[in-house]
Design a protein that fits this description.
The complex is a heterodimer of chains A (314) and B (483). Chain A is mainly α and 314 residues long. Chain A has 2 domains: 139 residues, no CATH class; 162 residues, no CATH class. Chain A has 14 helices and no strands. In chain A, helix 1 packs antiparallel against helix 4, helix 1 packs parallel to helix 7 and helix 4 packs antiparallel against helix 5. Chain A is globular and about 55 Å long. Chain B is of the alpha+beta class and 483 residues long. Chain B has one domain. Chain B has a 5-stranded mixed sheet with strand order 3-23-22-19-18. A 5-stranded mixed sheet of chain B has the order 13-5-4-20-21. In chain B, helix 3 packs across helix 13. The chains are: A mainly alpha (314), B alpha+beta (483). At the A-B interface, helix 1, helix 4 and helix 5 of A face helix 2, helix 9, strand 7 and strand 9 of B.
Chain lengths: 314, 483
């Protein structure tokens, strides 16, 4: 396949994943506003922007940290070129560019998602419509992933798409942890204060992990357990360890099929090994923030190495 | 796409479905019986579904100019245009003869130039033509094929009168609509195809892949199947959907200039496994942009050095560079003589009578009769830059006469044709509209293959003769009845 197509497929998957994760993040803020009122949600909206790396842009655009303004900025503002609408457009543009690498069903699911979301995001979203729009974004992203899973040949094209999904997911989850790390740090004062529980709940909710966590922990909650769940629990499909197990599987397949293990493979294997070997105690000792910051750098380096090894760019 | 001619309402025209006595013509008998038995409301619903189907599958074209970047649908009309097997067999023979002559003409123009010596075409028509590429002189493309893909535009003016309006010998577009229109019809009305035997068109992509592969260059290793790739200017090109569609259906890579490089006598594409040589490049990029070293130096769409590789036998370019000289509107007027000269046969398909304004007598006639004629730019396309006498005001005609006098060689003129009509479905009822037909022709050293039918373009506005998609035209599925 063409190097440019490999890059296009990978980025298509990345943009869809990013759009879906952004919808989850917004949903957490929305939930906060619903249960605690707009006042309490202001900090949450601000952290949504920080997580997405949008805070300086938003401040420049003169926005206030209220739900409606933040959600509209994140979802659809024309001045925000990383809005969800822009992500969906990017995903679709990439899909169009690599149309020949996709099955008809994957292309149609992507194109339909773009048409539906363009329509849904054509006007400002009020609080009454927000839930529906966020649900639509998640549903369409799942539809495309489902079409990939159900119709694509298990070849290099499929592997590049899966690499995109999990590289992006790992990046997004790590960013969420990074923005919230202070909440997850064990603190002497915490002693189950009401606010903290809500904050923790919110962290889980922003990766749709609240039910799974409660189910695994019989309702008990502690910040260290949450951090461990998000970073190391391989059963949870949005944890860093899960993402890297998937990436390792795809990279392994590529190595076998191509009969070559270029530099990205070694980088990935080392990173995967680190995740597998480490414990929560070691991460705490190293510093949660430092650990996540290093992870983000390494994740980017792996993505760049894949782009170079497989000749995405001329 | 090229333009079709206008006509005045005064001229009676041939209705392909209904004869002068109001009876259904045999070609449409079975279809019309089916149609009349359908519920009008149900048909209208199906029509809306067709539009949704096209939108979802992304069958769109991009519009240049005012709405740049916007993707539009070409309207689809669900009433098929039907051609009998006997009619088709005559068209097939006529188109085939014409395309054979075009290739012989191109070879001659770039080699011995007998045609000038024979006094059939003036040499200046060729050598002073921008579509003539001196780089091609003395070079024979692999397999001797110049026009691998041709779209021959036909119009009909009577029961037995099909005429060739244009020979599209560069990069004819629209074949994806031919294929998708049929797919849509089969999805919407499966029972129709069990009642009426229609010659299939779905084999076109495979035939195209085979035909291109048969033109592999000398550098092809002869072991594996030749590597075919489709070169597109990119996703913002108006026909990008078609480029992707054809590459996908052929199982070929869809490449852009930035994916390619010429090195060591071959053109390679950048794949995830390294550089891979391409044997046959089906390019949907104009000659001018093909090679910045040979042609337009600022082009980003082509491959630097591809012409050098081509001439050394390292790659096949389809269609060959320089074929535009054969579909030029001024050359068109010489086609009947060109056919006689190279095939020794009488042309099976007529030309539209054409006045070459470069000739003083013709110019005089054209200027005196502008109100009744259609005047076209020799190098124009898409229905732009033309004068349609019968529908123009006196002021527009006077203004055009000035342009004509200033540069007569830039124009040709043709009579206003009484184009045939086929009904469209307008709010559940049938209404006649003017149509043309573009069959698609594949040429390889193994022979000429024409897919039965082609693309019917239809002017959706009542009385209008402009079928161009850029000016409100639509398309129809085109049926050739099986014998």
């Amino acid at each position: 396949m063409l190097g440019r197509s490999a890059g296009g497929v990978l980025w298509m998957a990345r943009y869809l994943e990013r759009a879906e994760n952004t919808a989850r993040l917004l949903d957490a803020g929305f939930r906060m506003a619903l249960t605690r009122g707009e006042g309490a949600a202001s900090a949450e909206w601000s952290s949504v922007l920080v997580t997405m790396g949008l805070d300086p842009d938003y401040t420049k655009a003169g926005g206030a940290y209220t739900g409606t303004e933040v959600t509209n900025f994140v979802l659809r503002a024309p001045e925000n070129d990383e809005s969800v609408l822009a992500m969906i457009e990017n995903a679709r543009t990439n899909a169009r560019m690599v149309r020949t690498a996709l099955t008809r069903e994957v292309w149609e699911a992507t194109n339909e998602s773009w048409m539906l979301l363009k329509y849904a995001l054509a006007r400002p979203i009020g609080p009454a419509d927000l839930g529906g729009v966020l649900e639509l974004i998640r549903r369409q992203a799942k539809l495309v992933r489902g079409a990939m899973e159900g119709t694509m040949l298990r070849n290099d094209i499929y592997n590049f798409a899966r690499l995109g999904t999990h590289l992006e997911r790992a990046d997004n989850v790590a960013r969420i942890i990074d923005v919230k790390y202070h909440i997850l740090l064990p603190s002497l004062e915490y002693v189950g204060s009401q606010l903290d529980t809500v904050q923790w709940e919110l962290v889980l909710r922003s990766v749709s992990g609240e039910r799974a966590f409660h189910w695994l922990n019989a309702g008990a909650m502690d910040p260290r357990g949450i951090a461990e769940f998000l970073i190391l629990d391989r059963r949870f499909p949005r944890s860093l360890a899960y993402c890297y197990r998937q990436i390792a599987g795809n990279i392994h397949w590529m190595g076998r099929d191509y009969g070559a293990t270029p530099p990205s493979h070694q980088l990935l294997e080392a990173a995967h090994e680190r995740l597998t070997q480490t414990t929560m105690a070691e991460i705490s000792k190293f510093g949660l923030h430092e650990y996540i910051a290093a992870f983000l750098v390494s994740n980017r380096a792996i993505a760049n190495a894949i782009a170079a090894d497989y000749r995405f760019y001329a | 796409m090229q333009s079709i001619q206008q006509q005045s309402d005064k001229i009676p025209c041939f209705d392909e479905m209904i004869d002068q006595n109001g009876a259904i013509r045999p070609a449409y008998a079975a279809y019309r019986a089916w149609f009349d038995a359908q519920d009008a409301g149900w048909l209208a619903t199906r029509h809306d579904e067709a539009e949704q189907f096209f939108r979802r599958t992304g069958i769109t074209f991009n519009v240049y100019g005012e709405d740049a970047g916007e993707e539009r649908l070409i309207p689809f009309d669900m009433i098929p245009r039907i051609i009998t097997a006997a009619e088709w067999s005559r068209l097939d023979a006529g188109i085939s003869q014409r395309v054979r002559a075009l290739n012989l003409f191109l070879h001659d123009v770039y080699h011995g130039r007998e045609i000038f010596a024979a006094g059939i075409v003036p040499e200046a028509m060729i050598t002073q033509n921008a579509a003539y590429l001196p780089q091609m002189a003395g070079f024979t493309p692999p397999g001797g094929v110049y026009t691998h893909i041709v779209g021959t535009d036909l119009v009909r003016t009577g029961p037995d009168d099909f005429m060739v309006l244009e020979d599209n010998a560069r990069t004819p577009s629209g074949v994806s609509y031919m294929l998708e229109n049929r797919e849509t019809m089969m999805a919407m009305f499966p029972e129709l195809f069990t009642r009426i035997a229609v010659a299939p068109v779905s084999n076109y992509p495979r035939a195209l892949a085979r035909s291109l592969a048969e033109c592999a260059p000398p550098a092809w290793d002869g072991k594996k199947r030749p590597v075919v790739a489709v070169l597109t200017p990119g996703i913002y090109n108006s026909a990008y959907f078609e480029h992707a569609f054809l590459a996908d259906q052929m199982g070929a890579e869809l490449v852009e200039g930035s994916d390619l490089r010429a090195q060591d006598g071959r053109v390679h594409m950048r794949t995830t496994r390294g550089w891979q040589a391409i044997d046959v490049l089906y390019r949907r990029v104009d000659d001018e942009y093909l090679d910045p070293e040979a042609f337009n130096p600022v082009s980003m769409l082509g491959v630097a050095g591809i012409m050098e590789v081509y001439k050394a036998g390292g790659i096949t370019i389809a269609n060959a560079p320089g074929t535009g000289i054969a579909d030029d509107k001024a050359i068109y007027s010489y086609m009947p003589d060109i056919i006689r000269h190279y095939t020794g046969e009488e042309p099976l398909l007529a030309n539209v009578p054409t006045w070459r304004c470069a000739e003083a007598d013709a110019l005089g006639y054209v200027i005196d009769n502008l109100a009744d004629l259609v005047v076209k730019e020799v190098h124009g396309s898409g229905g732009y830059g033309m004068l349609i006498g019968p529908t123009s005001t006196a002021a527009q005609i006077a203004e055009f006469a000035v342009k004509l006098r200033n540069a007569p060689a830039n124009y040709i003129a043709q009579p206003t044709l009484a184009l045939s009509t086929v009904p469209i479905c307008d709010a559940g009822a049938l209404a006649p509209r003017h149509v043309d037909l573009r069959p698609y022709v594949l040429v390889s050293p193994q022979g000429i293959e024409i897919t039965p039918g082609g693309l019917t373009r239809v002017a959706l506005t009542e009385g209008s003769l402009v079928v161009n998609s850029s000016q409100g035209g639509g398309t129809k599925d085109s049926w050739v009845l099986a014998e």
